[in-house]
Amino acid sequence: MFSASGTNTPGATVRTSRRRQRAANEDGSIPKAKRQRSALNDQTFLPPDGAAEIEETKHHKTPTLTRRESPRAVPVLQKEIAVRGKKQRSGERSTKGDGSAVLTTNDIYTVSKLPALPDRLRADAASRQHGAIYSDSGYALTLTHSHAIVWPYAVHLPSPETFTFALPHPSKHASDPLPLGSLVSASASSPEPGLVVVMPTTGKITYWESIASAATLDLRLQRNGVELSIPGMSGEKVIQILNAESAGFMLAFSSGRIAYMRVRDDQGRPSIHVHIIHRHASASTGIFGSIRHALSSSQYHGDIAAMRAGRTERIGERNIVLATKKGKIQSWDIQRGGQNNNMVVEHEGKEAIVQAIKAALPVWTHLHIETFELLDFAYSLDSATETAVSRLDENEGLRLLLLTSLTEQEKSHYFLVEVTLYKDQLYVGDIRPLESYSTPIARKATSSTRLYLPDPALAFVVFDRAVLVVSLAKDINSPNSQLMSESHLFPRSFEDVVDLTRDMNIEIVGSGMEEPSPSLHGMEDLKMRRHKAKYPSVIILVRGGGVLRVAATNVAKLQSDLPPQVTAKSKLEQAIFFGTQQHNPINFSLHQDQEFPPEDVCEAALELSRDILKSKTPHIPSVTASVEQNLRRRSKALQDMAKYLQTTGVKLDRNTKWKLLWDAEKMAAATVVWKSYDACVSEKPEGQKRGLLTELVEYIHEDYKTNPVAEAGELDRVRHWFINDIDRLELALPWAYQVIKYTYADGQKGHDAVMTILSEANDLVLGALEGAFEFRTLNAALYGLQDEQLKHGILEIGYDGLPEIWTSNRYLVQNISKQVELAAALLKEYWGRADKDGAPSSRMMKKVREEHPSLIDMCICSNYERIRWSSEQGDSQIQHQADDLRAYQSQSEDNQIKMLSNQLGMPNEAITLAQRHEILPTLASVLTLELNDYSCQQNELDIDPKTSESCIVRVTGLQNIVNTCFDKFGMKWATALYELEIQIGVIKDLFDEFPQQRAYLTEFLRARPEYAKLAWIHEVTRENDFDHAASTLLHLGLNRERDIWSKKIELSIGKLARLAGPSFSQDNGVLIPDGGKKELATTNDQLDLIKIQDTLYNSISGAIFNAIDEDGELDCLREIYGNKALTKLPSFSNLLEQGMSNLVKHDAMDALVLIDLLALMVEDNSEDTLRSQQFYLALKALEKSGLDKDEKMLHQRVIWRRCMLRDNWTAINNTELRGDQESIEGLQRTCLYLTFKACLENRLFDEKSIIEPMAPDDILGACTDNLGQRFTGLDVSIREGIMKDFRAEDDAFKAYIDKDRLDKWHQGVLEEAKSEFARNLEEETNNGMMVEETNEALEQKEKKIADQEKAQVGQPWNAKPRLTLQLQISERGEFRGEY
Prior knowledge:
Blueprint: E1 94-95, E2 101-105, E3 109-114, H1 119-123, E4 130-134, E5 139-143, E6 147-152, E7 163-166, E8 180-184, E9 194-198, E10 204-208, E11 225-229, E12 238-243, E13 249-253, E14 258-264, E15 270-277, H2 287-296, E16 304-309, E17 317-324, E18 328-335, E19 342-348, H3 350-360, E20 373-379, H4 388-393, E21 398-408, E22 411-421, E23 426-434, E24 450-455, E25 458-462, E26 466-471, H5 479-486, E27 495-500, E28 507-514, H6 523-528, E29 537-543, E30 546-552, H7 555-558, H8 568-578, E31 586-587, H9 598-613, H10 627-648, H11 654-683, H12 692-699, H13 717-724, H14 729-732, H15 735-745, H16 751-779, E32 790-791, E33 794-795, H17 810-830, H18 842-871, H19 876-902, H20 907-916, H21 920-938, H22 945-969, H23 971-984, H24 987-992, H25 998-1006, H26 1012-1023, H27 1026-1040, H28 1044-1060, E34 1064-1067, E35 1070-1073, H29 1077-1100, H30 1110-1121, H31 1130-1145, H32 1151-1160, H33 1174-1183, H34 1189-1205, H35 1209-1213, H36 1220-1228, H37 1231-1241, H38 1256-1259, H39 1276-1300, H40 1302-1353, E36 1366-1369, E37 1375-1378
Parallel strand pairs: 4-28
Antiparallel strand pairs: 1-2, 2-3, 3-30, 4-5, 5-6, 6-7, 8-9, 9-10, 10-11, 12-13, 13-14, 14-15, 16-17, 17-18, 18-19, 20-21, 21-22, 22-23, 24-25, 25-26, 26-27, 27-31, 28-29, 29-30, 32-33, 34-35, 36-37
C-alpha cells in the first residue's frame, strides 16, 4: 500500500549540498515566503496554559468552535477557569490538555480520540478510504477514489485547516483499488510537505510540490504539480509506496516486482522518475533501459507482504528490507537517483521460523507449515542512533522483528519473531507468542496488518479492528528471563488488545507511529517536526471513528522488576468508566482470548466496587463542590459495572452478587442521607448548623474512618466522610441513637433538644434503610439475583452461606430498636400535651410522629432480616440469639403498632403497617378494636346524624378491610381473627359476623382440636354436617377430654351424631357405621369405662359426702379405703393415691389407672358393697381397655393375684375344728369367690372373652421381669421401684401357694362358684317357664273376652283388657300370680 514515512521513524528532509540553506528563526522554523499561507507550528493551537499532552482529565467542557476550513476564521481561544466538580453530562468524555477525548486508559497506555478531523470525512464516514499518519510533519493523509485529503492531525481544533486535492485521474470503478499516496518532505520554496499519488491500476503518478497548492487547485494553470505514467504495466497493480527519503521512494507491484521512484531532479525541481529494480542490478541506463531489463527478466520477488526503510545514516542513502508473505527476506541498499541499488542479503526464512516456533512452543507443533504467513516486520534496534547500515558494516547482522502467523481452522496464532540477517545465513532469535488475539486476518480489509516499534521495549500491532500493545522488555538479570532466553522465548510480560466495536461499522484504514524523541536526523528535520510526541504511540485512522492515538504512558514500568500484567480489574475498570461513553468506538467486552477465570472476575469486581465506595479510583475526582454529584457519579459507576457484568455473562458466585448489590445500596443510601443533611444544614441559621451528623462522624472511632488531613485542606469532616467512608455506612447508623444517648446522659440537653436530635437521627436511619431496601428491590435482577425471594427488600429464604448483611448487623438492630422505643416514649409523653413543661415544639413533635410508622417499619425489616440470617447460621450461639430476638421482636412490634393506633391516633397507619409485614394477630386486634369503638358510637342514643353517618362509613370501610384480608392472607388471617374473638369471648361474632367467610371458619375449627366444643356446634348449626360433628366430638371425648361427665356427654352425643349421619346404614335393623366399626366399638368401650368409674364413685360417695372440698374428700377416701398393706410398697401406694385423686376430681381415668384403683382399694369395714364388685369391675375394665392380647393377659394375671391376696388363705387353709358348712361359708366370703360369682353371672367368662379364671401357677411371676408397655416412658429408677413392689407382691402370693395350698383352694372356690351359678340358673329357668305358661293362659283369656266384646259392639279395636296379671316371688323363690 503506502507508508507513513517509509520507516518506523521519521525520514530526513530532501536537500542537497549545492542548495543554500535558509536561515532558521529562533524557534527553529524556516522563514515564510511573502504572501504565503501561514504554516502550522507547535504553538499554533496550543492553549495559553501550555497543558501537557497526556495528563489527567480536567472536568470542564472544551469550548465549542465553529468548523472552518482555515484557521484564520477561528476565534481566539480564551483561557477557561476550571471549576472543580463541574457536572459532566451523560456520555461526555474526559478530555486532555491537547483537546483529545480519552476513550480508555490504564497504568500502561491511554487511548484518546484526537479532535482534528476534516468536515468532509466527518460527514462522509462510510465512504471507502484509506490513509496514513506522518508524525514527522504532523499531517495525516486520506485517499478516496477521487480525492486526497491532508490535514494536521495533532492540532486542537475539531475542524482543522484541510488541504483537499481532486485527483486528476480518479478511479473508474468503485471496486478498483484505492489510490496510493505519500507525503513528500517540504521543498525549499515551501514549508509545507508535498504530496505524491499513484493510481494502482493505471500507474499514473501525480506530484504536488506543496500541499498549499490545494488552494489553487481549480486554477489548472497555477497548479504546481507534475505527472507521469509508469510504462510497462500489464495486468499488475501497484500495491505499496514506500517513502525512503532522502534516497527517494520505492514502489511494490502485485507481480512481486519493485521499482525506484523519485519526484525531484538533482537540482531539487519537481520531476518524476521511475525504474524497475532487479535482484542483481547495480546500475541503470535510464528509465527505458530499466523497463527493457524488467521485461526480459522473470526473476520476481513473489507476493510482497511489506517493504520497510531503515534509519537514515547518510543523506541520499537508505537500507530497504523487503519481505514476502511466504517468508523470503531481502535487504537492499538504495541511493538517491536510483543508481547503485544493490541487494545485500536474501534468505528464505519460512522453514527456519516455523521450526523455531515449534521448538520453543511445543503446544503448536500440530500447526502446518503451509499455513505460515509473514504479515509485517520492523527494524529491531537497541538504541535511537543505531542504523541498519552501521550494523551490517560492523558485521553484526541486520536485526528484524517479524509478525508471523500460523492458522488452524477459524483461528490464527500470531508470533513476534526476532531474526538476524547475516550475509550468509538467517538466524532466528527469541519468539513472542501473541496470546490476546487470535482473530484471522480479514482478507478484504482496507489496510494491511502493521507492526510498529516506537520503543525497543514496546510494540504495537495494528489489525483491521484491533490494536495490540505488547511489551518486549527483557530483564537480563531476572532468572525467569534467563530461563526464557534459553528457550528462545520473550519473557511473559504485558500484552493487551484494544478492540474496536463491530456495532458501529468502523474499520482501521491507516496508521502511523509517534516516537517520543527524534532519531538520527539533521537540524532541518528537527525544525520541520510539527508534533513532538511525549510518549511512544501509534496513531490509527478509523473510518467512522476519527483519529485515535494509543500512547504508552509508562514504558518504564514495563522494564521494572515486576512488569505489570493485564488484570481483570483493569479491564473491568476501563469498561465501567469509558464503555458508557456515547459513540466510543472501543469494544470493552472481554476478547475471547482474554477471558479471565470467574473467581478472578469476582475478586476484581469486589475490589473495584470497594475502590469506588472509598473514592480510590482516579476516574472520579474526590474533591468536588457538590457531594451529591460525586455520590451520583459513583452510584452510576457501580450501576455501569453491574450492567457490564450482566451483558458479558460473567459467572459470578452468589456471594459476590450480593456483596456488589450491598455496595451499590450503600451508595444509594448515602445519596439520600446527604440530600437530607444538605437540606437540614441549609435551613439552619448561621452559628447553629452543627447537628447530629457532625457529632456522629466525630464519635466514630479512628480505626473505622479516614481521618481528614487539615494541612492538606481537608477541613469538612462530614464531606470527607461521605467521600471516603461510605463503605462503612453500617457502622455509622447505630451511632444515630448513641449520640442521643450520650448527649442526654451528659445532662446538657432537655427533652426539646433530644427531640430535635431524634428528628435528625430519624432522617439518617430512614434515609439509609429505606433507600437501601428500595434499591435492593429494584435492582436485584440487574445483579443476577432475580431468582431470590425478596419481600420489602428482605430475603425470605436462602441466608445460608451469606455473610452478615449490612442492613441488619447486630449493632444496627439493637440501636434502631432503642431508637424506636425512645421515639415512642417521647411521643407518648408529649403528644397532645403541648402545654407541658419542657415539651418539644409542636412542629418537631408532628414531624417525629409522622415519621414514627416508617421508623417502626424499618425496625421490623432490619429485625426480620437479622432473625432469618441468624437462624440459618451453623453457630448455635447465633441461633440462640435469633430465638431471643424473635421473641423480643414479636412483643415489641405488637406494642408499637398498637400504640400507633391507640395513643397516637394513627389507626390507618397501624393497619397498613401490620398488613405490610403480615403481623396478623396485631392487625386483628387493631381492626377489632376500631370496629367495636365505631359500632358503640353508632349505637349511642344521643349521636347526631352526621356523626352516625361517618361511623357507618368507617365501620363499612373496616369491614371491607377485614374481607380484603381474607382474600389477601387467607387462612393465616382467619386464624388470627378467630383466635382473637375466641380469646375475648365474642362467640356470637365468631359464628355470625362474616357469614360469607364461613368456609374459613369451618377450616379453622376443624384444624384445631382444642376448639372442638365450638366446632361441633358450628358443624351442626351452620354446616349441617353430622359426620364432622360426630368426628369432632368423638375425637374430643376419646383423646382430649379429662372431665368424666363432659367426656360421657361428648361421647354420647358424638355417637348419636354418628348414627344420624349419612355414612351409616341399617342392616337387619342394626345401625352399622360404614368403615367406622372400630370407632364405634372404641366409643362403647370408653362409655363402659365411664360407667365403671361412675359405679365406683357412687359406691364411695357416701364416705365423702360430708367433705367440704376436694382435699377433704381425698382425706376421707384415703382414711376409709386406704390400703395399709401398701405401706412398704411405695410405688403401689402412689398408684392408689393417683387413682383416688382422679376419682374425687372427676377426671376420666384410662383403663389401667382405673384397674389399679379398683384392685388396690380396701374397704375398712365389714360391709361387702365394694368387696363384692371391685375385682369384677377391674376385669371388666380390662376387657374394655383396648389393649392388645398380650398386655391384657399380663394385667389380668396381676388382677387375679391381687384378688387372691385380699384374703387370709392361711386362716382359710386351717380347717381344724370346722364343719363343712362353716368352711363353705368361709370360702363364699372370699373376694375370689365373689369375683368368680360376678363374672359368671355377667357372662365375663364367655368363650369370646379373654377373661378367664386363671390358676395361681399361671399368675405367678406377673410383672416381675417385664412391666409391659405401660411404664415404658418412665425413668429407669422409677421402673425399678415399680418392679420391686411387684416382686414383693409376687413373693407373698407364692407363699400362699407353697404353704397354704392356694392352688387347691382356688380350684375348690371356682367349683363352688360354678355350682352356685348353675343352681341359680336352673331356678331362674324354671321360674321363667312358669311365667311363660301363665302369660299364654292370660293371652287366651284376653282373646276370649275380645271376641265377646266384638260380637256385642262390633268394634274390637276399642276393646281394652279387663284383667292384669301381677307376679310376685315369695321368700322361698316361689312365683305367685293374681289378676
